[in-house]
Amino acid sequence: MTMKQHIAILLTSCLLPVGLIQAAPSSNVAWTVETHRMVKNGDPAIGAKIETVETEDVNACTDCHGKGGAEPDRDKHPTLAGQVAAYTYKQLRDYKDGSRKNRLMSEAVERLTDEQLAALAAWYAEQPLAKVEVDEEDTVSETTVELVFRGDKTRMIQPCASCHGPRGEGAIIDVPAIAGQNVKYFVNTMKDYAKEKRANDIYSRMRIIAKALTRDEINELAVYYARLGSGQDGGGLKQASAE
């Protein structure tokens, strides 16, 4: 073996782990037929019981998200009521295996089985949307509404509605309902995507979009979707998963 060949092998062995890390999936959830079926058949009655369970080390779901996921601490936690079941299940699984980072959430779900996570997701999917608190003085420009329905080709931003639906109702598997989401959580989530602090979005879709949006656009989108949820009863947002 020549010296050049030896150096080439050493360089390859050093670079390989980096490449593997970069190629790692953003989520370990595999949407097999069995997984679809499990989420679709999640038992809301079981989920209702799970959300109130509290231990010495872990708070009940209701402590942060409110009963039925409809009354969260508006500064920190998301509204879960009316969320697409498959999306909620994926997020819980991502917390459990570390694809999404949050110490409290990881501790909360580590004791739960996949079937229990599916039940919890089904329970939240059945709940009607809560009325979201939005400052009456907050405005949404026509330009921001265009982002919802037309996007911005100059910045490679797809219309929000093309994935999240015309009413923010979400879609099968990994696209959440965002109608009725509280404003501050929406804004903080987009900031986390932009800063790569959250990286469990499939194909980096939300990270790419969040980096392209301005701060004002993110704020106005948060207000737009919060208000969009206020007049709905959750019927269009119920378990649109795994059909």
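(the above was protein one; protein two follows)
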Amino acid sequence: MTTTIYPGEVFADTQLFDTGIRQLIPHYDLMLDTLVACVPSNARHVLELGCGTGELSLKLLKHCPDAQIMAVDYSPRMIKMSKSKLEKTQFLERITFIEADFGAWANGEMKKEIGTNFDACVSSLAIHHLTDEMKYKLSTCIGKNLVEGGCFWNADPILQESSQLQEIYLKLREQWTINQGSTIDNIRSKIGNSQPQGHSGQDRLTTIETHLTMLSSAGFKTVANPWRFFGLAIFGGWV
């Protein structure tokens, strides 16, 4: 029987996520560590959109010793796993979880209070589930809710510029998975049946150029792409 999951949960069994995503996504930890390095260590008020199992949250809490994180995710399963992980650390009191759809926040439909005047906003493997129209609305909403000089960084799959690049990436990803002791077929057998939730759906990938143009149009003064590995990238900027 196929398990129905929300976009972004990926695996039918949430407990498999941390291991499975590292087998599926090349340089997953390097990608998250690079994103965290882009966040000022003196940030005190951080918004995380799509907190998942708390892997990025944990890295941020270690990097920013004075930070309080507002973590948003629409998956109760992900939030439960994240809380369970953070309960084993000294960081739980520095993070607040909100079960909500960040697409609703971007669209002005939010019923729960997230807050404003964030020093930084971060996201990983989540925003690509929005349409381009919603990505732009979210970029605008993020910009309005950052302090002057605040930053936003997103680590996400992107649409590559050519089919040749995509073919190379798929081969490299397959070899990466083999090197991690698994196979693409084995990973796929554990993936759940993703159904739309809120404003999110199946992968809706966009090029780096489009992402940076959206951010500039949304009012970000400086935009950048500090890391990329074929179909994966970190991008964002400062307001």
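Reviewer note on protein two: Residues 96 and 158 are 29 Å apart (CA to CA).
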